[in-house]
UniProtKB/TrEMBL annotation:
<keyword id="KW-0732">Signal</keyword>
<protein>
    <recommendedName>
        <fullName>Lipoprotein</fullName>
    </recommendedName>
</protein>
<feature type="signal peptide">
    <location>
        <begin position="1"/>
        <end position="22"/>
    </location>
</feature>
Length: 149
């Protein structure tokens, strides 16, 4: 009985450590400002600018959505997701945090192996690209084929 009790305690600790290895809510994702940058009506132009020579490919772009600002006091920023691009690396196939696995099981929109590029559109006209696989930001987007220039 004593061995079973220790085994149960050890298993509980292992599960707790595994759960803590995932994305946690913290100070880095708090947003105090309710303001948002102006809607980027030129989001398709900016996406084509980012694509450059790859602009001729059949790429889907999502309708812009809001995300957190750069700091807790900054206005919220807009982003779009690009799909249909060639991956720059291979899909992760190693250890994944327990919380990520649970989130993927619960999310009807989860598409493991889908390569996404999140394009954060800044009010200054610049953009930042975040490349990855099955980004939670891109799961529920409305997509349209990126129109030719």
């Amino acid at each position: 009985m004593r061995i079973l009790s220790r085994l149960s305690l050890t298993l509980s600790l292992c599960l707790t450590i595994a759960a803590c290895s995932g994305a946690n809510t913290g100070l880095h994702n708090i947003q105090f400002s309710g303001a948002a940058e102006a809607f980027p009506a030129d989001y398709q132009v900016r996406a084509r600018r980012y694509l450059g020579a790859e602009a001729g490919l059949t790429v889907a772009v999502s309708y812009p959505r809001l995300t957190l600002g750069e700091t807790a006091l900054s206005p919220k920023r807009w982003y779009v997701c690009l799909r249909g691009l060639e991956p720059t690396g291979s899909a992760p196939d190693g250890f994944r945090p327990v919380l990520e696995i649970a989130e993927n099981m619960m999310s009807a929109q989860s598409r493991p192996g889908t390569y996404d590029v999140v394009l954060v559109l800044r009010a200054s006209g610049t953009s930042t690209a975040i490349k990855g696989y099955d980004s939670p930001l891109c799961r529920e987007g409305r997509y349209e084929v990126l129109a030719a220039a």
